[in-house]
Specification:
Layout (H helix, E strand, L loop, with lengths): L2 H32 L35 E2 L3 E6 L7 E3 L5 E3 L6 E8 L6 E2 L6 E9 L12 E6 L8 E2 L5 E2 L1 E5 L9 H10 L8 E10 L2 E12 L22 E6 L6 E2 L3 H4 L6 E6 L7 H18 L4 H4 L8 H13 L10 E5 L6 E2 L30 H4 L3 H15 L5 H14 L1 H10 L1 H4 L15 E2 L5 E2 L6 H26 L12 H23 L1
Parallel strand pairs: 2-12
Antiparallel strand pairs: 1-6, 2-5, 3-4, 5-7, 7-8, 8-11, 9-10, 11-13, 12-13, 14-16, 14-17, 15-16, 17-18, 19-20
Length: 538
């Protein structure tokens, strides 16, 4: 073999090894995106509302539910022993102050849920339980239409785990019905789509709520019965807390300061680099030990330190501390739906002992999808890269490339415009009669554009770039659904370009590390091996 042939042979082997390493990496990554596990939720295809009569036929002028009332949705009947208390108020920055008094009152819940999607107010209840109930929400706390947190109890006052509407047994439930959302589908749509993508996502089912006052039933509106964020095999499946274990599993939430969670003293908070609080959701404040609390604060602070390190070799370790797939999906879901309150508020993260930190479930989309009060949302830009943690991840070209690859897959499936529109149309057909009753019940508040009804949500007029006043008042349901579809179509298309543009602002490339270093080692071995063999032969 001549010297030239030897060089050609070595070059060929080197090129082949590089192509093999790159090809295997691509195929492995693509397969991971195609075969990523999805959440196993109870969402099912919703049959259209079969009723043809006037939806208001059995609702009186004073919203009294009359005999003969029926619905294709489950009917939830709440009986309360007293008036709900006003137990907190908020300052100008949104921080809460807890007032004197007990937030919970006692009551009883009955749920009518037949198998034929035909439920009558006189039917036998499928579920009954005592409960403690309070108003919930932040922005929505002072809305005329209340939202509720329920803690189910036995007659003896013990926690009562009940399977509600097929969502798994638990004692804590939410009745979500934010007046910020005229469509009444924003949360359901986002949660259902999330369930097709993410490992954890809130289960939710539509229902109509009636409040029993003695012998009188008062129509309260259309709601989502949904899960709370909690540790459970049906919710966030992490290990149960054991005070004997040094390393504990935990659930935290990034949000405003609240008196109802244990606030953590994390590194970035203590150093003044973060304005948001990290609240501990699990283990509960009643069960947590001092040693476990210190461990969680130290563990989360170390993760923050890695993510915000100025040293590339330290920052490059972040994929050992976080589950990158969950953060990629969380980014794409919230950005796609334009949920820019996420990342700062109502942002849940969880960590199973011995595993990396995961983010989720997604939460609270009533002001998403072009429903921001102050002005319309831009469809052609993105903003989620500015949120905590993501402001660092999107500086790494590897993370941005994973966003791009995952979004390319989702655009052809779960986040395709055809699929989104199919789910929207199916949902609006299912709640057709119920949403007409909802708008009738709260018409004066939904239609108010005066700005005088300050404690309910309304969309402000604003001046556009041409200094033209844009009036955002809308009292037409079909128009509201059209607005959602249009926003998601335009924003969904723009995201592909916008994600690629993120590459221009990256300053790190952590892709050449770990297993990729192994490939480089293989390349080097393959490169030098022929030389060794030739030398030995000579």
């Amino acid at each position: 073999m001549t010297q030239g042939q030897r060089k050609a042979c070595l070059l060929g082997v080197c090129v082949l090894a590089i192509l093999l390493a790159g090809g295997l990496g691509f195929l492995r990554g693509y397969a991971a995106y195609r075969n990523r596990d999805i959440n196993k939720n109870t969402y099912f295809d919703l049959p259209p509302d079969p009723h043809t009569e006037d939806p208001l036929l059995y609702i009186g002028e004073d919203y009294t539910v009359q005999e003969g009332f029926h619905s294709n949705l489950p009917i939830v009947i709440l009986s309360m022993e007293s008036e709900l208390t006003h137990y907190k108020e908020f300052d100008e920055t949104g921080n809460e102050t807890v007032l004197d008094g007990e937030p919970y009152i006692k009551g009883h819940i009955s749920i009518i849920d037949g198998d034929t999607f035909e439920n009558c107010i006189s039917d036998k209840a499928a579920v009954q339980s005592e409960f403690l109930i309070k108003k919930r929400g932040h922005t929505s706390y002072n809305f005329d239409k209340a939202q509720y947190l329920l803690k189910l109890k036995t007659a003896e006052g013990l926690d009562n785990d009940v399977d509600i509407l097929g969502m798994g047994a638990h004692d804590s439930w939410i009745l979500n019905g934010s007046m910020a959302d005229k469509s009444m589908i924003r949360n359901y749509l986002a949660y259902r789509i999330s369930a097709e993508i993410s490992e954890v996502s809130p289960d939710s089912q539509f229902c109509e709520v009636v409040i029993r006052e003695g012998d009188r039933y008062v129509y309260q509106g259309l709601y989502l019965m949904m899960e709370t964020v909690a540790r459970d095999k049906n919710r966030i499946p992490i290990d149960s807390f054991n005070e004997k274990n040094l390393y504990t599993s935990y659930i935290v939430r990034r949000d405003r300061f609240t008196h109802f969670d244990k606030m953590l003293e994390t590194g970035r908070r203590l150093s003044g680099l973060s304005d948001e609080w990290i609240g501990l959701k699990y283990p509960s404040e009643e069960r947590i030990t001092d040693s476990a609390l210190r461990y969680i604060e130290k563990d989360f602070s170390e993760i923050e330190q890695i993510i915000y390190s100025d040293r590339e070799d330290v920052f490059g370790l972040y994929d050992k501390y976080i589950d990158v797939d969950s953060f990629v999906d969380y980014f794409l879901l919230n950005e796609f739906f334009g949920n820019y309150d996420a990342g700062i508020h109502s942002t849940y993260m969880y960590k199973n002992s011995g595993e990396p930190l995961k983010i989720g479930p997604v939460w609270d989309f009533d002001q998403a999808m072009n429903n921001y009060a102050m002005e319309e949302m831009e469809t052609g830009t993105m903003a989620f890269q500015e949120r905590p943690f993501f402001d660092r991840f999107t500086k790494d070209i590897r993370f941005v490339e994973e966003l791009e690859a995952r979004y390319a897959v989702l655009q052809r499936s779960t986040l395709s415009h055809d699929h989104i529109c199919d789910v929207i149309d199916e949902t609006t057909a299912y709640i057709r009669s119920a949403r007409e009753r909802e708008w009738y019940r709260w018409a004066a508040d939904y239609y108010d554009d005066s700005g005088q009804n300050w404690h309910n949500y309304y969309l402000f007029d604003y001046l556009d770039e041409e200094n033209t006043l844009v009036n955002r008042f809308n009292d037409n349901y079909d128009q509201e659904i059209y607005n959602i579809k249009t926003y998601l179509y335009k924003h969904g298309r723009a995201m592909q370009t916008q994600i690629r543009l993120l590459e221009k602002s990256t300053v790190y490339d952590t892709s050449v590390r770990g297993e990729n270093k192994l490939f480089l080692l293989i390349v080097m071995v393959l490169f030098f091996m022929p030389s060794v063999l030739i030398i030995r032969k000579d």
